[in-house]
Amino acid sequence: MKKSLGTKLFAMPSPVWVVGSYDANDQPNIMTVAWGGICCSAPPCIAISLRKSRLTYTNILQQKAFTINIPTVQHIAEADYIGLVSGKNTDKFGVTGLTPIRSDNVNAPYVNEFPLAFECKLLHAIEMGAHTQFIGQILGVKADEEILDSNGTPMASMINPLISSASDRSYYAFGEYLGQAYSHGLAFLDNHEGELN
């Protein structure tokens, strides 16, 4: 029997994403977020949730743009630090040695050292309570060539992205490869009538 834990924020795993933005003086800033995900396929959109007190919150509303950068496990210290301090009084790019590159699709910087970046135009800002959900339309994707397969698709195994767990406030790496999606469940179709999604 399951034990009731009440209302908790234990979704797992969560991404470790670094959000890039410019302030009103065109200074690049980055912050680490864990609350986000793909939210629409057409148009391709991604969503993140931020508190109003964050500099990135103000930057996104002013610039109507942001980037999502995917750090590798090799950048755990940088990603963690970026989430510890505020860009209101700290040059996070300067401290970490990371390089801001101006997006050619939106008015936001991406992180040169991270292997994958999504360039997003702000579509919606939805007030949820303590957080605001920003929904951005993906206008471009930047990827290091070494993380791409022969079809030009980014591979998680080549990126080795950080993931996190809210329940124990810990970072993790991806585990073993288990197989292709939409293949393991086919065994159930042999014995039951059903329509594929």
UniProtKB/TrEMBL annotation:
Keyword Flavoprotein: yes
Name of this protein: Flavoredoxin
Domain Flavin reductase like: 12-153
Record-stated family: Belongs to the flavoredoxin family.
SUPFAM superfamilies reported for this sequence: FMN-binding split barrel
Cofactor: FMN
One Pfam family it belongs to: Flavin_Reduct
Keywords: Flavoprotein
